[in-house]
Structures are given as structure tokens and as C-alpha cells.
Amino acid sequence: MPSLLEVRDLDVRFPVGGGWLGRGRRWVRALDGVSVDVAPGEIVAVVGESGCGKTTLARSILGLVPPSAGSVRFRGAEVSGLDRKDMLAYRRAVQMVFQDPFDSLNPRRTVFGTLARSLRIHGIVPQAEMRAEVARLLDRVGLSPGVAFLDRYPHQFSGGQRQRIGIARALAVRPEVIVADEAVSALDISIRAQILSLMQRLRDELGVVWLFITHDLGVVRSVCDRVVVMYLGRVVEEGPTEALFRRPRHPYSTALINACPVPDPVLARALRTEPLGGDPPSPLSPPPGCRFHTRCPVARRVCAEQDPPLRVIGRDRRAACHFAEEAESWPMLAHLTEDTPA
Ligand code: SF4
């Protein structure tokens, strides 16, 4: 199936420091040759520790951060080359949901005021139909009956309800893609599950494609079709969610999976493994060779010398590890079997 969104070899650099006329300025390579495809009907997770570049990727896709190299294409058209009119249409087609819905909602505006503003800016419905349309949107995201919530303010809602309003605001302009940046990270575990199932329902009912950015690999398993794992500005592994969880091909993905909480304490004891040690290196001076070698439990001499390319490993899988084919023998994978519960 052709991609809806295609990110190709994307580089983003940010200047750091520097004195008069930029002397001594250094550059952080926040994204380094990142390629990601999102097909119609998919929910794709982008996962990694903070500072891995996942939020920069989201902001680049939205056109908020200019790329230093590479491209973002939507329905085959290069986003950076769009004229004003087409860029407005793109901004409508690709929406964002933020981590903290309280910060992203105007405290002085009612829910109706917030959602009606988006409808008005993009000319979605005539003024006379505005209240009915906003009530429909609230129903759609599970705030039902929507008409009862129209004149309330953000502080009158719980965190989960505010996130539903954030999603309703994104939906108001009838988008094709929603980028959700840590959209469930601030929520309690039960509310998180409800929001994740809402995302799935909106995909099934409206065909909305989700790019789900998160530091927590544990939350993606039940809802995402594909997972892209990032480390220090690069994609290090990508594949269908279940395949990646059951047989990860990069030690970093393995560490993220091992860090996922297991609800059953007996099982948790049986599966216990060493957590990933150390902090990620500074993106200002990433280590030579494989960027993960300073923390990798199975690194060998060649890892500090040669940078492993992201390569195809079996069907629908890519990994950037010299020894991806030997993953079955990694000690930190010993407890992951075909029967490991979801
Ligand atoms: Fe670890 Fe080497 Fe693979 Fe990098 S290339 S992830 S250091 S085994």
C-alpha cells in the first residue's frame, strides 16, 4: 500500500552556544538520516528515551522545524515546497495532540469556544451549526452527551477528559493524520487505556492515522501496528509490533521491552532482567561506531569502530546492529519466548 506520509533521510540540526557572529557555535544533530513511512489506516509508534529525537521528528512532520536535509512527503507532495494555500490544507490534514492538555487549552475559553475556533478558522461548518457540530465531536470522543459539556471550562474536567477535548479539537478539522506527542504519559493507567482504545476506535471508524510518540514501549503493544525505535537521533529498529516485542533485533529495543512493567508479580520475578545502565551519550558528541556501544550489554570490539547501517532483517523488519541475526543468543532475550504474555 502506498505511504500516506513518507519521511526520507531527514536531518535536523540545532545550533548550540557560540559567541559574536556565531563563533564557536556547535551543532546538535537531533535527527540523523531518519526514514519512516506511515500507511493509511495505521497506528505507528515512535519510541525512545527523552532526547532521542522523537519530538523533533513530530515537529518536523508538522512543518514546525525546518529540515537541514531530507524530506517529508504527504500524499507524494514535498511538504517544504507547499505554497501558502496547500500548507494550510496540510496543517488541517495533519494535526497534533499534546502531552499536557491543560497547558494546551485556553483556561478562559469554554470547550465550545475552543472547538468552535478551529471550526471557524478552517471554515468547516456554518456558524448556525457550530454548537451541534461541537456537541457531536464531544460525543465522538466519549464526552457524552456532548451538549452537557459545551459551556464548561478546562478546570472543570479531569486530566483524561481534557485529553479527550484535545483529541476532539484535533478531530474538528477532519484530519487524516494525528501526531500524538506523549499524549497518555501524564494520565493514570486506567485512563491511559481508555484513551488508547479511543485512538483505536477513531482509526477504525474515521480512518484517522496515528503517529504515536512515546518514551514508554509498554503502552504501544495493545494499539500500535508498527513500532519505530529511536536512539540518539537515529532509527535503530523498526517492525510490526508483535514481531518486535516477541523477537527484538536490537539490544536497545530489548532493554526497552525489559523495562515494561509486568502486572503479575510472580511473572515479573520470573522475567526480571538487568535494567539498561548509564545515560545516553551527549548528542553533541555521539560516540564513534555504533552509538549504542557505550551501553550495549553484547557489544564487541567492532561496535566501537564501525557504524552499523539500518538494514532489512527478515520480513518487514529493519535493525541497525552488526549482530541482529544473533539476537536469539543474547542473554537478555532468554526470558522472551513465543509464549511471553502481551
Ligand atoms: Fe550492540 Fe554492537 Fe549491535 Fe551496537 S552493533 S547494538 S554495540 S551489538
Count of DSSP H/I helices: 10
Pairing-aware structural class of the strands and helices?
A: alpha/beta
Order of strands, main sheet, comes to 6-7-8-3-9-10-12-11
Rounded Rg:
21 Å
Bound molecules: iron/sulfur cluster
The main pleated sheet reads as:
8 strands, mixed
Range of strand content: 15-25%
Give the tally of β-strands.
12
Task: Note the gap between the termini.
Answer: 28 Å
Q: Which descriptor suits the 3D outline?
A: globular
Short description:
It is built from 10 helices and 12 strands.
Fold and architecture overview:
By secondary structure, the protein is α/β, with parallel strands linked by helices. Helices cover 28% and strands 20% of the residues. The chain is built from 10 helices and 12 strands. The protein has helices at 54-61, 84-93, 101-104, 111-121, 130-140, 159-172, 189-206, 241-246, 251-258, 265-271, and strands at residues 5-16, 26-38, 43-47, 69-74, 77-78, 94-97, 177-181, 209-214, 226-231, 234-240, 311-312, 318-319. It has an 8-stranded mixed beta sheet with strand order 6-7-8-3-9-10-12-11, sandwiched between helices. Iron/sulfur cluster (SF4) binds next to loops. Iron/sulfur cluster binds next to loops.
